[in-house]
Amino acid sequence: MSISITDTMITAKDILQFKAHKVSLQESKNCIYNGSPFQVYKQMSSKKKGARFEGIVQEYCTNLGYKVTKPDNSDHDRKINNIKVEIKGSMIWSGKDEHFRWQQLRPHQDYDVVIFLAIFPQQIEFYGCTKQDVKDNLEIQDEKGNWIHNQHGGLKVNSGTFFLDSDGLTIPTWFKSIEEVLL
To answer: Is residue 143 part of a domain?
Structure first.
């Protein structure tokens, strides 16, 4: 089958012949969220996911009887019972069994606690921690001086932005229930 190649486009018909596209289709077919009510979030951009996850936390906490209000500034996402809350969600990463990665954790921003969403295909689990927990557990160096949770700029320089990995089966021991961090 011949592919029409120009320097300005690939047609919808032609993309079907590209190996990269075939790999993407296969990954899409094997996605563990297929058929899940949470599949819609898997398909969103990171920015849109973040906004939707914030909305989910707002509704969830309101339904639990907490008072949820707008943030004071862009360093946190909501105020819950007058506590400044940063919200971070993660879905299982492709190709990894129940592996979550929460990103863009910045210990020097203006928030009091973080609420983490672990979005499995059949449920969302909520966890929380204090800003001090983030500092103590992510803003750390190994014995070689590497910033092991550093998200940007390599391991040698503290970028101020960190990530957290979890296998989904064993949550970090420093995670708490959201009730504990919202007291």
So the answer is: yes
In this structure, what is the dihedral angle of CA atoms 168, 171, 175, 180, given to the nearest 10 degrees? 80
What is each CA distance from 170 to 3, 99, 108, 148, in whole angstroms? 48, 10, 27, 19
- Predicted structure pTM score: 0.87
- Structurally, how many domains does the chain consist of? 1
Are 183 and 177 contacting, i.e. CB atoms less than 8 angstroms apart?
no
Residue 163 CA to residue 153 CA, distance in Å, equals 13
Assigned token pair, 121: 């295909």
116 is in which domain, residue-wise? Answer: 35-181
CA-based nearest residue to 125, from 151, 158, 92: 92
Rounded Cα–Cα distance for residues 35 and 77 (Å): 30
Answer yes or no: is 146 within a domain: yes
Q: Is residue 126 part of a domain?
A: yes
Which residues lie across from 79 on neighbouring strands?
69, 84
Report if residue 177 sits inside a domain.
yes
What are 110's two structure tokens? 């203006």
Query: 79-107: buried (b, 16+ CB within 10 Å) or exposed (e) per residue?
Result: bbeebbbbbbbbbbeeeeeeebebeebbb
Q: What's the CATH number where 94 sits? A: 3.40.1350
pLDDT digits (tens, 9 = 90+) for 60-104: 999 999 999 999 999 999 999 999 999 999 999 865 567 899 999
